[in-house]
Amino acid sequence: MAQLVGAILGSGTLYLLLDLKPQAFFGTAPVGSNVQSLILEFIISYLLMFVISGVATDNRSIGELAGIAIGMTILLNVLVAGPVSGASMNPARSIGPAIVMHQYKGLWVYIVGPILGTIAGAFTYNLIRFTEKPLRELTKSSTFLKSISRSHA
Fold it and tell me: 89 pLDDT band (50/70/90 cuts)?
C-alpha cells in the first residue's frame, strides 16, 4: 500500500509541476503486444527476485555486495526489456502514473507479470537454498570486508 500511495503522490506531483499533456505519459505501456510484455515482465521480475533472495536473504552470501548485484540485475533488466515493456518490475511503479494520467493500456500486464514472476523467483530460490549442511555451519559467516582485512594483515 505504501508503494502504491507513494507512486500516486509522486506521479501527481510530476503531473502538476510539469503541466504534462496526455501524450507525455511517463508510465509504462507495452510497445509490442501485451503477451510479449507480460512474458518479459515475468522473466525480469523472476530474475530480480531470484537475485534478491540469493544476495540479501541468504546467510551464505556476502551482504556488503548485495546492492551491487541487485543494481546490476536491474540495469540488465532495463537494457533488455525496457524497449519492449518499459521494465517496470513493480506494479506500483506502473499503477501510479496510470491512475494520475488516466492511461490504462495494458496495465494488467504490469500487475500480473511482476507478481507471478517474483513469486516464482522466490519459490525457485527456496527450492535450491536447502542444503545438507548443518545450521551452525551455514550461520557462521564472515563478512566480505573482514575477510579482505584478514588477508592483507
Answer: very high
